[in-house]
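Need C-alpha cells for this chain, all 320 residues.
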Amino acid sequence: MIGVLLLLLLLPLLLFIAAPQIRKMLSNGVCTSTAQLPGKVAVVTGANTGIGKETAKELAQRGARVYIACRDVQKGELVAKEIQTMTGNQQVFVRKLDLADTKSIRAFAEGFLADEKHLHILINNAGVMMCPYSKTADGFEMHIGVNHLGHFLLTHLLLEKLKESAPSRVVNVSSLAHALGRIHFHNLQGEKFYSAGLAYCHSKLANILFTKELARRLEGSGVSVYSVHPGTVHSELVRHSFFMRCMWRLFSFFIKTPQQGAQTSLHCALAEGLENLSGNHFSDCRVTWVSAQARNMTIARRLWDVSCDLLGIPPALAAL
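Here are the C-alpha cells for all 320 residues:
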C-alpha cells in the first residue's frame, strides 16, 4: 500500500522528467525538403495563428509570395509583419477570408485572381472545433460549413489558377478524429441531432473524402492533393471546449508545438516526388491509415455532389 502511494506521489515527477523524450517520440516526422520557392505563390488559410502561422512562416522563409487568408485581418497584419521581420521576405500579404460566409470566400478569390497570375500551393488549414451549435452566414452547421464547405468552395474558385500554375499542390488539414466521423446525409446540418465533438469528427472525415475525390478528378492535371493529420498540437482550436483546454494544460508536455504540427503540411506542400501519392492521407510526414469510411469512394462522390448542390456550383463546372 505504501509502495502504491509512493508511486502515485512520484508519478507527476517521473512524467515531468520523461516529458522531453515522450514529446520527441510523439513528434517524429520533420519536413526534410530543401526546396526553395522564389517565384512561387502560396495561400494558407487561418495563417494568423498556430499551425497556419508556422506554415506561412516556413514558406516565406523559402522565398514564396505568401497570402495569409484569415478572418481577423488585424491579427493577420501583425503576423505578416512578424514573418517579414524574421524572414526578410516582404512578400507576405494579408487578405480577409471568412470561411463561414460564402460571400467572403468569393470576394477573397476574386481579389486574389485579380492580383496574381499564379498559385502553386493552397493549404486549407483553417478550422473550428467543438463549437456550440451554430450556423454560418449561409445556414450551414458551423463545422461542416467552415471545415469542409468553405474550403470546398475556395478550392473550386482557385482551381483553374492551380491548373494553369501546375505542378501545384493542395493540402487539406484533417485529423485522426476523422476515424469517429460519419457522413449523415439526412442530418448533414446537425438539425436532427447534434454533438459538438462528433460534428468536428464528421467535418474532418469530409476533408479526407474531399481530398480523395478531388485527386481522382484532377488525375493528369498536374495538381496533386493531400490530406494531413498534424498531430495533437497546442493551438486556439480548443477554445470552445473547457474540457479540452484542461486536457491540453494537463498533458502540455506531450503535445506538439505549432511548429512541429506544421511539418506534415510542409512535407506535402514541398517534398519532391509525392505526385504519385496524390489523394493519400499523411501523418508525421508519411502516408498513414484512414478509416473504412474515409476509403469509401461512393460516399466521397455523393458528398461531392451534395456539396456542389449546397454551394450552388453548376454540375458542368463541378466536373472539373
